[in-house]
Amino acid sequence: MIRKIAPHLCLAISVMMLVFLVVNLFNESMGFLKGDVFETLLLIYVAVSVITSAFLIAANEKRK
């Protein structure tokens, strides 16, 4: 189940981070790239990316 969810989470959080970055470029006073919410999302994103990468590496090794 996590193998199906991880890529979708990674994509969703990536899009959120991209939106935060663009909004922050135009309006720094919004403060999207600082604070607990950003740090939490970044931590989740990194964890999901590592999990997704591990699953993809394992799947590629099985195909060989």
Describe the protein:
By secondary structure, this protein is an all-alpha fold. It has one domain. 83% of the residues lie in helices and 0% in strands. The protein is built from 2 helices and no strands. Helix 1 packs across helix 2. The longest helix has 28 residues. The radius of gyration is 15 Å and the shape is elongated. The chain starts with a helix and ends with a helix.
Q: What topology does this entry show?
A:
Layout lengths: L1 H25 L9 H28 L1
Helix pairs in contact: 1-2
Give a concise summary:
The protein is an all-alpha fold and 64 residues long. 83% of the residues lie in helices and 0% in strands. The protein is elongated, with a radius of gyration of 15 Å.
Shape: elongated
Helix content: over 70%
- Beta-strand share of residues: under 5%
Helical/strand content category: mainly alpha
Mean pLDDT: 82
**CA-CA gap between termini:** 23 Å
Instruction: Detail the poorly predicted runs.
Output: none
How many distinct folded domains? Answer: 1
Order of helices and strands: HH
Computed over alpha carbons, the radius of gyration is 15 Å
* Number of helices, counting only DSSP H or I runs of 4 residues or more: 2
Number of strands: 0
User: Main β-sheet, in a few words?
Assistant: none
